[in-house]
Specification:
The chain has about 240 residues and is mainly beta. It folds into 2 domains: about 5-15 and about 155-230, Jelly Rolls (Sandwich), CATH 2.60.120; about 20-150, Sandwich (Jelly Rolls). Helix content is about 0%, strand content about 55%. The chain has a 6-stranded antiparallel β-sheet with strand order 1-2-18-15-20-13, with no helix packed on it.
Length: about 240
């Protein structure tokens, strides 16, 4: 169960990894646990599994990948993938010159690049519309996934190790504990302890023109994945 409270101009929500709900993939190749999502303004998700995915502005999740195969396509989406556990995977990115359907096999275009993730916290960045074929190095993996719709949101991503002090201005900040345990203080408030798999969500409550920066300090020997997110068309008609 999530826990929420406010400190200064921010609302903090603790999302325990143990509480995330696993959703099996249709192809049986793995499961996804959604951590947090923001929808495009005025887009109303209908609550049917999979039907609302195209309405997200940004989405953060953890996936357990059990077998090799193609990635689903997400048009207009920038993707960041981080290896959390397992021996790793190799992602073959092909030229987007074919018409493979979403979730179908890569179109057979020329190989553009290969993303190799074999160490914990290795990062791959690629376009959601790119044909991607994943090969597992040696058995299942667990991966962190950030998806951002380019015309609806913007994001920055960093890996924080050891003690960090930052001042961040964003609509939402997500701090995912990828390794170890970390204490996180926000705006000088009482620290929140994150174990591996936990996420601290920080939503600013001040208007953009009245100062919405948050001060974040971390202590511990773990590693955090830090994502700052903004909705760019929140006032669009």
């Amino acid at each position: 169960m999530s826990q929420a409270h406010e400190t200064g101009t921010a609302q903090l929500t603790l999302l325990r990894g143990a509480d995330l709900v696993a959703s099996p993939w249709k192809n049986g190749g793995g499961v996804t646990r959604e951590i947090a999502v923001a929808y495009v303004p005025k887009a109303v998700p209908n609550g049917v599994s999979g039907a609302a995915l195209d309405a997200f502005a940004w989405r953060v999740s953890v996936a357990d990948v059990a077998q090799a195969g193609p990635f689903s396509r997400f048009e207009g989406v920038a993707r960041t993938l981080v290896l959390l556990e397992g021996a790793g995977m190799v992602l073959d990115e092909m030229a987007a010159d074919g018409g493979a359907p979403s979730g179908g096999a890569p179109s057979g275009g020329a190989l553009v690049r290969t993303h190799t993730l074999t160490r914990a916290l290795d990062v791959a960045r690629f376009d959601g519309e790119a044909p991607i074929d994943a090969r597992l190095v040696d058995g299942p993996t667990r991966d962190f996934n950030l998806m951002v719709r380019r015309d609806a949101a913007r994001a920055s991503f960093e890996v924080w190790r050891d003690n960090v002090a930052r001042r961040i201005e964003a609509d939402t900040v997500l701090l995912y504990c990828a390794q170890g345990a970390v204490n996180v203080g926000v705006n000088g408030g009482e620290p929140t302890r994150l174990a591996a798999g936990d996420t601290l969500r920080i939503d600013t409550t001040a208007a953009a023109d009245s100062g919405r920066a948050v001060r974040i300090e971390t202590q511990g020997e773990g590693a955090l994945l830090a994502i700052a997110l903004d909705i760019v068309n929140a006032h669009a008609d």
